[in-house]
Design a protein that fits this description.
Distance between the termini of chain A: 55 Å
Domain Peptidase M24 (chains A, B): 168-376
Number of strands of chain A: 16
Order of helices and strands of chain A: HEHEEHEHEHEHHHEEHHEEEEEEEE
Keywords (chains A, B): Hydrolase
Helix content of chain A: 25-40%
Domain Creatinase N-terminal (chains A, B): 16-160
Protein name (chains A, B): Ectoine hydrolase
Strand order of the largest sheet of chain A: 4-3-2-1-5-6
Oligomer: homodimer
CATH superfamily of the largest domain in chain A: Creatinase/methionine aminopeptidase superfamily
Strand content of chain A: 15-25%
Pfam families (chains A, B): Creatinase_N (PF01321), Peptidase_M24 (PF00557)
């Protein structure tokens, strides 16, 4: 194996572990099974596209975390995680997609062997990577353990970003700027949508300023016309048409840290509906940014935005943003804070959000969004992309 | 909304539903909750990047399936699924990533309202998109239901491909050929790996012969040198080096149908270890292909390949292939058949596999693979990429 490549100092990993253990103590959990690849990365540095098989990072009562995963991925763990090799525990390949044995059967036996079988064990109950079958296996094979739902326990520890994390996000911001610049440069009537996507990937992957682009957790979204009322349709190979608006929901990514940013392009003469959506969004964005400061709550940003929308006669019933940072597919959100009424989480310096002001109306969609960093006194937009509806001929 | 865009005939969707119901009957299941986006797509046509929130297709005892998902994705369902609009059932946005309510709470109430609360209900227990919390919610809110594990029930119905599916896979094959041609054309010492990835994405996304490229379910894997002993590390922005081998594990994708194919490139004079791996792989591939014919079993391909490897002194302890077809992240495999000893599934005409012959040795990796279609009498390689170690000065 070649040398270990850590993205953060060992001190930073130690602080993360300590923060996590403090919260485990608070929840009276002795041991934590972390299934979320973003959390696995944040705790240990582990980075690989191996989350399609069962794997986990275990935070035991004392000492280093334990990486648990498929045998062929152990080398990847040795290469990317700061852990000592004895704490990288592989399982045999005949556990993969078997109907007879489950990787969690084996994890249970490991935990039992180490004397952890009767502990209070935290699990991420509502995580993509912790299936109903995984839980059933643990419950069956660790009958004396008490399981505690710790969904998002680690995610919450990630909310305030360190200087190095912010540095990576600034690189991601430069990348998303380049992606939007490429769109503005290349988009035209008659261009097949898949060819425009190729341009977006090109800018995203080559990166900027010596910082290469990593794969964003979501593929580019760029629905046009009436399809843009459906925000999560992906592209096709039909040509871009005159008289249609298209929004671009994309993110730059560097070292797995994301900065999402959306803009909307109209080919031809924009309809009044697009101009109205632009006015409402821009005014609302400013109002939301004014409310984005330490001491205020997440919901204050949403309420400020929704109040402006209401004056424009627009009702938005979906949340208007979420925490961002390190992530893996299928979502670049942190799945903790939401910018929506009722979320009273206090805004603190170092928190980062995608202020997702998208409007999905009956027969169109409109997105001009910002990724923001809460500073000591107010807010900073991480990327600098002209904040307007882009109109081309 | 613009017009409905179906990728298959209504007859084909009806046949798929009938096949699924037949298997449900066999398992004595009255109603099936399908969480896997590939299965949702195969049953209804639904296609969107919305699997980061809870969603499902319900196969009720009679009539059309029901799409269940986030409110903002209902338009996407109307646009891509053949279902009548009354069978597209959205949930409110305050269920999204809430700590107070779970989308499955609401699904349970819908099922109860329709009189399905006491049925035998199949669920995909070991699916990424069916979390432990989702199951706990259903169990809690449908106390009179009996739940039956139906993991991969639908996946198995997908094993034999229809003519239209094979047509889409042939387009995907043309795309993966173009991706490998691009690599052969562009790769050189000193090129940053992220720039090479940009070239791969460009070929993948623009597509060929009028068929645009869709996003593959896995990002390009291209580890070099000793890192290639870790098969699932993704790229970085360091330059390609002379004296190193790199394998490329990539897939073409069209209309969500995948054809994966791997090749290996050596920059400089290949070491004896690479030449030996090439000989063993090519000889083993031929042996495996000879065993790939109707009437034989999945394991026969693996045994033929492993026998050749053994003569070359190589032990491969991971499976050597899996079913392929329609898929979404994080995996382009179908998660049914495995080419490995013990899998006695009979090979039938229309089945498609990635014959994944990869060797991950202590300090190198080597992959020359084929995606194959079982024909009426033997086997066909779907893509045509020179089957050799590519050497560039």
């Amino acid at each position: 194996m070649s040398e270990l490549q850590l993205k953060f100092s060992r001190e930073e990993y130690a602080q993360r572990l300590e923060k996590t253990r403090r919260e485990m103590e608070h929840k009276e959990v002795d041991l934590l099974i972390v299934s979320d690849p973003s959390n696995m990365n944040w705790l240990t540095g582990y980075d690989g596209w191996s989350f399609y098989v069962h794997q986990a990072v275990i935070v035991p009562p004392n000492g280093e975390p334990i990486w648990f995963g498929r045998g062929m991925d152990a080398n990847g763990a040795k290469h990317t995680a700061y852990l000592r090799h004895e704490n990288i525990v592989p399982y045999a390949d005949n556990y993969v997609q078997s109907t007879e044995r489950h990787p969690m059967d084996y994890l249970a036996s490991i935990l039992a062997d180490r004397g952890f079988g009767s502990l209070r064990i935290g699990v991420e109950m509502d995580n993509y990577w912790f299936s109903a079958a995984a839980f059933a296996s643990l419950v069956k094979h660790l009958p004396n353990a008490k399981f505690v739902d710790c969904t998002a326990l680690v995610n919450w520890q990630r909310a305030i970003k360190s200087p190095t994390e912010i540095k990576y996000m600034r690189s991601a911001a430069r990348i998303v700027e380049a992606m939007h610049a490429r769109i503005a440069d290349k988009i035209e009537v008659g261009m097949r949508k898949c060819d425009l996507v190729a341009e977006i990937y090109d800018a995203a992957t080559r990166g900027v300023d010596g910082a290469g682009g990593d794969y964003p957790a979501i593929v580019p979204m760029l629905p046009s016309g009436a399809e843009a009322s459906a925000p999560h349709l992906t592209w096709d190979d039909r040509p871009m048409r005159s008289g249609e608006g298209t929004f671009f929901e994309i993110a730059g990514c560097h070292n797995r840290y994301h900065v999402p940013l959306s803009r909307t392009v109209f080919l031809g003469k924009p309809t009044q509906a697009f101009l109205d959506a632009e006015s409402a969004t821009l005014e609302g964005l400013e109002a939301g940014l004014d409310a984005a400061k330490p001491g205020n709550a997440c919901e204050d940003i949403a309420k400020a935005y929704f109040a402006v929308l209401a004056r424009h006669g627009i009702v938005k019933d979906s949340r208007t943003g979420y925490g961002i940072g390190v992530s893996y597919p299928p979502d670049w959100g942190e799945r903790t804070m939401s910018l929506r009424p009722g979320d009273r989480t206090e805004l603190c310096p170092g928190m980062t959000f995608h202020f997702m002001t998208g409007l999905w109306l009956e027969d169109m969609g409109f997105e001009i969004t910002e990724s923001i960093l809460i500073t000591d006194t107010s807010v900073e937009c991480l990327a600098n992309v002209p904040r307007k509806l882009l109109v081309k001929d």
